Structures are given as structure tokens and as C-alpha cells.
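Severity: low
Component: inverse-folding endpoint
Summary: output formatting inconsistent between runs
Steps to reproduce: submit the following C-alpha cells with default settings.
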């Protein structure tokens, strides 16, 4: 079961596809942030913007989308 629910995600994005693309890109950024923590390069990557118990980067990204923390635009 996905958490947060897809209907919460669709309140902040246009389509299922957009939610997948936005969340995948943000999950990669969160992954890079945690991998660079030990190196002291914090300014390149934004830390997670939500408080969560999850350690899964994709779940964190989906929670950010569901709470409206991410803005996106099509090229």
C-alpha cells in the first residue's frame, strides 16, 4: 500500500505520471543529500522538507508532494 494515498498526491500535481516524475527526481536529490552528508557539501542538495519516520527516499519525496512542498513546471 502506498503512503500517502494517490488522491492526496493528485491535489498537488496534474497527473499520475507527473507525480511519479516529480517524486523520482526528488528522491534522487534526497539520496544525494544523505550520501554527501559526511563530506560537508550541504549547499548543493536540499534536505528533506517534511518530518517523517520513513527512511525510504521515495516515500519521503511522495510525502513532500502530498504536503505541497514541491513546485514543478513542464518545459
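Observed output (run 2 of 3):
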Amino acid at each position: 500500500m502506498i503512503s500517502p494515498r494517490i488522491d492526496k498526491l493528485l491535489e498537488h500535481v496534474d497527473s499520475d505520471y507527473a507525480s511519479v516524475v516529480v517524486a523520482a527526481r526528488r528522491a534522487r536529490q534526497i539520496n544525494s543529500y544523505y550520501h554527501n552528508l559526511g563530506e560537508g557539501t550541504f549547499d548543493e542538495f536540499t534536505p528533506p522538507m517534511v518530518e517523517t519516520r520513513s527512511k525510504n527516499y521515495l516515500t519521503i519525496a511522495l510525502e513532500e508532494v502530498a504536503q505541497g512542498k514541491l513546485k514543478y513546471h513542464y518545459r
